[in-house]
């Protein structure tokens, strides 16, 4: 029996709706897997303003689907709690006044139990809504759904890094999970991949999902340069420390020098010297620093200082993206649930650990691409409003979902931030 054209379109829409629902359920479930090892007391802590309590992440990602999908599009939806619109709005000023970020850890209520009730309520309504998906609104709903799923994956990474920081300030050195056996390999020598000068294209081409800050494709001139085949390791960074790298102002940007003096930084975040041996706090507790693992939890200031000390520099984001275009997106991601960089340098090409393990600082400020246009409406606040005083990182980390990152993905943080899994890949002029 041959389907009519209209019936065939409806069948395709039904298939897409089913796939969307499946992804929704998988991504939402992973958030709850991340918090499963926590005790109720762990859900409330906000140890620094940049870190949010785990229960806030669970609530805010739920608020997103309620606010941007269910309330405007689902006629049968009844709001779970109107006050949540204030409590769990992050920074969408065009939508309404958000609850102050630095005060999120002061809220013992709603309880953890109520937060999970909220998630379940919204999930049940999302399933009902998607079961009643109509062809007439598919084109409008699908892009918002995709942003919501990508948004939740971003908060999954923040959940992991925030839990780690919250645990790290506890003198008991609590264990989030027991350390699994990880594969290791010989550390390859640091070698340099030469890239010829020329006009290159970077940015997202429009195939598959991308955020507005990745678009459009645009041209840049790159002088000839070389980029390292692997990230900088702990042992290489230790050489910088032992060579008095933190005491020599010539290596540091002025603001970075001021920061390390104010904060008395002497090593990456979580490193501690005990009886002459370097240890680092991990989600499996205190562990000896594994020398061949990529160095992580360092600021842009530290990455830049190390690059200067080594006689090299950090790559620009255009250099990074152009050099990595042929590298497959695979590596040590959050999917592995180790949430720690490993010493496995197995690769099917000449570039190691391009994706996963650690985000790699670039020397590029986070700014708008030529002809870039933010999304219309409230979601236009998602990226563009943060394009000031932040630096771009590339490649993803051991806390990033493999389905979330891509060659054009632009992460960004202020240059002094260290609680993310951030590291170094060097470049040099030719």
Structural summary, described in words:
With 430 residues, this protein is an alpha+beta fold. The protein has 2 domains: 5-168, Four Helix Bundle (Hemerythrin (Met), subunit A) (Up-down Bundle), CATH 1.20.120; 192-429, paralog of FGE (formylglycine-generating enzyme) (Alpha-Beta Complex). Helices cover 34% and strands 13% of the residues. It is built from 9 helices and 14 strands. The protein has helices at 5-35, 54-73, 84-87, 112-131, 135-168, 234-242, 254-263, 300-309, 317-323; strands at 192-195, 198-202, 218-222, 225-228, 271-274, 277-282, 285-288, 331-332, 355-356, 359-365, 391-394, 411-413, 422-423, 427-429. The strands form 5 sheets. It has a 4-stranded mixed β-sheet. The protein has a 3-stranded antiparallel β-sheet with strand order 1-4-14, with helices on one face. Helix 1 packs antiparallel against helix 4 (112-131), helix 1 runs parallel beside helix 5 and helix 2 runs parallel beside helix 4 (112-131). The chain is globular. The N and C termini lie far apart (65 Å).
CATH topology of the largest domain: paralog of FGE (formylglycine-generating enzyme)
- What is the percentage of strand-forming residues? 5-15%
Write down the CATH class of the largest domain. Answer: Alpha Beta
Query: Runs with pLDDT <50, length 5+?
Result: 1-7
Structural class label? alpha+beta
**How many distinct domains?**
2
Please, what is the CATH homologous superfamily of the largest domain? Answer: paralog of FGE (formylglycine-generating enzyme)
Radius of gyration: 23 Å
Largest sheet: 4 strands, mixed
Q: What is the 3D form?
A: globular
| N-C termini distance | 65 Å
In total, how many beta strands? 14
Q: Helical proportion?
A: 25-40%
CATH architecture annotation name of the largest domain = Alpha-Beta Complex
Number of helices: 9
Can you write the helix and strand succession as a string?
Answer: HHHHHEEEEHHEEEHHEEEEEEE
Mean pLDDT across residues = 93
Strand order, biggest sheet?
12-11-10-13
């Amino acid at each position: 029996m041959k389907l009519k054209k209209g019936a065939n379109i409806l069948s395709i829409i039904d298939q897409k709706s089913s796939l969307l629902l499946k992804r929704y359920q998988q991504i939402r479930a992973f958030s709850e897997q991340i918090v499963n090892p926590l005790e109720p007391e762990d859900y409330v802590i906000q140890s620094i303003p940049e870190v949010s309590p785990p229960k806030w992440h669970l609530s805010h990602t739920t608020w997103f689907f309620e606010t941007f999908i269910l309330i405007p599009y689902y006629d049968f939806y009844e709001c779970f709690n109107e006050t949540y619109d204030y409590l769990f709005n992050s920074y969408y000023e065009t939508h309404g006044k958000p609850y102050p970020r630095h005060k999120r850890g002061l809220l013992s209520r709603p309880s953890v139990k109520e937060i999970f009730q909220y998630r379940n309520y919204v999930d049940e309504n999302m399933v009902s809504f998607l079961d009643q998906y109509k062809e007439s609104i598919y084109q409008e709903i699908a892009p918002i759904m995709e942003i919501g799923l990508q948004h939740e994956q971003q908060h999954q990474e923040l959940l992991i890094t925030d839990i780690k920081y919250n645990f790290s300030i506890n003198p008991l050195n609590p264990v989030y999970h027991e350390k699994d056996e990880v594969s290791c390999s010989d550390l390859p020598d640091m070698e340099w991949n030469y890239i010829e000068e020329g006009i290159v294209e970077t940015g997202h081409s429009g195939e598959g999902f991308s955020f507005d800050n990745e678009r459009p494709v645009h041209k840049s001139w790159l002088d000839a340069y070389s980029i390292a085949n692997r990230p900088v390791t702990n042992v290489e960074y230790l050489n910088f420390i032992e060579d008095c790298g933190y005491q020599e102002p010539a290596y540091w940007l002025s603001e970075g020098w001021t920061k390390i003096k104010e904060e008395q930084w002497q090593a990456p975040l979580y490193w501690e010297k005990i009886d002459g041996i370097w240890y680092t706090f991990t989600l499996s507790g205190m562990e000896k620093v594994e020398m061949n693992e990529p160095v992580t939890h360092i600021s842009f200031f530290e990455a830049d200082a190390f690059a200067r000390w080594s006689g090299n520099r950090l790559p620009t984001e255009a250099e990074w993206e152009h050099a990595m275009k042929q590298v497959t997106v695979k590596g040590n991601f959050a999917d592995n649930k180790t949430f720690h960089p490993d010493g496995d340098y197995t690769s099917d090409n000449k570039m190691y650990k391009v994706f996963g393990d650690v985000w790699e600082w670039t020397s590029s400020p986070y700014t708008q691409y030529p002809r870039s246009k933010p999304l219309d409406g409230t979601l236009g606040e998602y990226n563009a409003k943060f394009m000031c005083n932040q630096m771009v990182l590339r490649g993803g980390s051991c806390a990033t979902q493999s389905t979330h990152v891509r060659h054009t993905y632009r992460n960004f943080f202020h240059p002094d931030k260290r609680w993310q899994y951030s590291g170094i890949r060097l470049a040099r002029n030719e």
